[in-house]
Design goal:
Elements: H1 2-26, H2 35-54, H3 75-80, E1 82-84, E2 87-89, E3 109-111, E4 119-120, E5 133-135, E6 143-144, E7 157-159, E8 177-179, E9 203-205, E10 223-225, H4 236-239, E11 254-256
Parallel strand pairs: 2-3, 3-5, 4-6, 5-7, 7-8, 8-9, 9-10, 10-11
Antiparallel strand pairs: 1-2
Length: 283
């Protein structure tokens, strides 16, 4: 009787329990999932990982063909330089940068300092009408074509310090700050009307050049640095106006002429319109 009870009740229960455990375990075995679904899952997962691994960094590009329109045309420059929003930083670029790189169309600020750029042509900034500031300090620029900056109507700050310029090009009329310190500028290379129409110019830096005379200075100028040149004399019309004894220049508050051969005390009438006397040699 006990044997019959064991056979009829306990054995079927053990068989059913074993089947349930087998079903649970089969969920953990790849073979228990339909082959097509499992292979699709692993394939998609691997593709996703490979795609993420292959993604370039923010400014990285491949060397494939580049379209002429849109952002792709701007990317090669951003391989050599750092492009952040509307600013392009190309400082001490390696390999040597010998010309102005092609800029993104929306560039407003260019910093291409301490490279080996030798010439600025009219094509370098063609079509980049959004430029507001250009800094080319510490290059080897000896020539700038007239008109290179003339179409940059929004440009307010231009720095050409520490180059090899012997003359200045035509400059944008709306400039507020111009720096050409540490060049090879001579008076014959600076046209008489170079700064005349620049009615918004506030800061003018022409120190450490080879100027023999003070160029025409607009009334708007506040800071004028002419130290360490070859200036030998000044006259009444250098800063003031000989035919207007009431003329004043209250804006011009910082004038440096030290390091020049001129003895300023010999020309007392040349500074009557100024708020402060120039820094320079008086003995």
């Amino acid at each position: 009787m006990k044997a019959l009870l064991f056979t009829c009740v306990l054995v079927p229960w053990l068989v059913a329990a074993s089947a349930r455990r087998s079903d649970q375990d089969s969920q953990l075995i790849p073979g228990s999932v339909p082959g097509r679904e499992l292979n699709g899952y692993f394939t998609d997962h691997l593709k996703s990982r490979r795609a993420r691994r292959a993604l370039p960094l923010a400014d990285e590009l491949d060397d494939g063909p580049i379209n002429q329109g849109g952002v792709a045309a701007d990317l090669p420059t951003c391989l050599l330089c750092v492009c952040l929003t509307r600013s392009v930083y190309c400082e001490e670029v390696s390999p040597d940068m010998t010309s102005v790189p092609t800029l993104p169309k929306e560039t407003a600020y260019l910093y291409a300092r301490f490279n080996k750029i030798k010439k600025i042509s009219t094509k370098d900034f063609e079509g980049i009408v959004t430029l507001k500031r250009i800094d080319l300090t510490g290059n080897m620029i000896s020539e700038i074509e007239d008109g290179a900056f003339s179409k940059l109507t929004l440009l307010v700050e231009l720095t050409l310090a520490e180059n090899k310029l012997v003359k200045l090009p035509m400059l944008p009329a709306k400039l507020k700050s111009f720096n050409a310190n540490y060049n090879l500028l001579q008076t014959k290379g600076v046209k008489a009307n170079t700064f005349k129409k620049m009615t918004k110019l506030a800061n003018l830096y022409l120190a450490d050049n080879q100027l023999e005379a003070v160029p025409h200075i607009p009334d708007s100028v506040r800071i004028l640095h002419l130290q360490n040149n070859n200036i030998t004399e000044v006259n009444v019309n250098t800063f003031c106006r000989a035919n207007d004894t009431y003329y004043l220049r209250p804006s011009l508050s910082d004038v440096r002429m030290d390091g020049n051969p001129v003895v300023l005390s010999k020309y007392p009438d040349s500074f009557t319109c100024l708020k402060v006397l120039p820094v320079g040699r008086y003995r």
